[in-house]
């Protein structure tokens, strides 16, 4: 069967979805190649990105790579849970947790706000000054 020829066994909607997926994968490929060329040259704009954003970018690149490889395994009939990619995805999950913690820390105020617990302060003062009367 020719490449452009449609099959009687595959519905037209499925073939259209496959074509759209191929176009999207080609777009992803060009974007990844551009990102990798920037990341390989430390003197360029990638070095100017703040460290947290750089870590997020590299994490997303690793996650996308693993996800695409996992999809390729599935398309080949190999279950990703039976492949070493599973351990890589678990490792990325740990890094995602760490990265999320750092993002949360970066959004937190530099100095935590304090609130006064009036009841605790009153107890503290009462116990530290035993001869204190209500009138004083």
From TrEMBL:
Keyword match Transport: no
MF terms (GO), sorted A to Z: DNA binding; RNA binding
Coiled coil (residue ranges): none
GO BP, sorted A to Z: maturation of 5.8S rRNA; regulation of gene expression
Protein keywords: Cytoplasm, DNA-binding, Nucleus, RNA-binding, rRNA processing
Location within or outside the cell: Cytoplasm; Nucleus, Nucleolus; Nucleus
A single Gene Ontology CC term: exosome (RNase complex)
Complexes and interactors: Monomer and homodimer.
Function: Plays a role in the recruitment of the exosome to pre-rRNA to mediate the 3'-5' end processing of the 5.8S rRNA.
Family matches, as PANTHER family: NUCLEAR NUCLEIC ACID-BINDING PROTEIN C1D, SUN-COR STEROID HORMONE RECEPTOR CO-REPRESSOR
Homology family: Belongs to the C1D family.
Record protein name field: Nuclear nucleic acid-binding protein C1D
């Amino acid at each position: 069967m020719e490449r452009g020829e449609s099959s009687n066994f595959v519905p037209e909607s499925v073939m259209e979805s496959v074509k759209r997926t191929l176009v999207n994968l080609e777009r992803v490929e060009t974007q990844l190649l551009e990102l990798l060329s920037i990341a390989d040259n430390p003197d360029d704009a990638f070095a100017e990105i703040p460290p947290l954003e750089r870590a997020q970018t590299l994490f997303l690149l690793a996650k996308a790579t693993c996800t695409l490889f996992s999809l390729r395994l599935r398309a080949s009939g190999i279950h990703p849970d039976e492949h070493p990619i599973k351990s890589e995805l678990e490792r990325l999950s740990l890094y995602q947790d760490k990265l999320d913690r750092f993002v949360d820390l970066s959004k937190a105020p530099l100095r935590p706000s304090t609130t006064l617990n009036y009841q605790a302060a009153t107890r503290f003062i009462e116990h530290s000054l035993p001869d204190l009367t209500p009138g004083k």
